[in-house]
Amino acid sequence: MQIPPAQWQAALGDWSVYQRCDAAQRARLHDLAGRLLLRKHLVAVNGAELDDLLRLRIAGMAVVPILGLGLDWYDRWQTLILYEGPFVAEHSWEDEYGIVHHEVSERSGEAWERGPVVLSLDDVWHSGRGDGYNVVIHELAHTLDMRDGSANGAPPLHPGMDAAAWKRDMQAAWDNLARRAEQGEELPVDDYALEDPAEFFAVLSETFFEQPEPLQQAWPLVYRHLVEFYRQAPVQPEHG
């Protein structure tokens, strides 16, 4: 899919992650995003409208996590559904006493192991604005996490990565975040990360790309694990 550079600039030029990419990374992003638009279905529902620039923006954000991994890491889902505003999700679960609970809530996004991925366009527009928030990266991080069959905060690691070190360092960061939140301190990531391990990984992922420096400063070992997993290093080395 040949898309003029001016269109990419119009769609993504205000995004700090895109601005940080060098020429080779931008070429890779353009290629993967174009292929994603050919392979996946972006479907607008409930009054949502998609134009060409918005499709490019969503696709560009979507492929950032897999720039070093490849599009095959998204092969378990085929459809991305866009709502105009928050969508209502209904969930049921059974507790340890056998009581079935029903929950109805408004969501900005949701992902299932085999798809679809659902996003609120309102939240897409608020993504990539410099505050660390990116619902597109967040939900697609969930799909990576679920490649081993469950959303547990531990995506399938590459050969040579230390799963025990991953678990140890993620738990230490979780405990540190919980302590900071309890004491009312400034947090390096959104406290939604404390919902469960899956949300912790998704929030870490969006922060890793959107605000990598504070993440590296707070939890350097976690940052290094994410560098190894995503095969990207968003914090550029300083040259003196």
TrEMBL record:
Membrane-spanning ranges: none
Pfam families noted in UniProt: Peptidase_M90 (PF06167)
Highest taxon, organism lineage: Bacteria
Listed InterPro entries: MetalloPept_cat_dom_sf, MtfA_fam, MtfA_N
UniProt-recorded name of the protein: Zinc-dependent peptidase
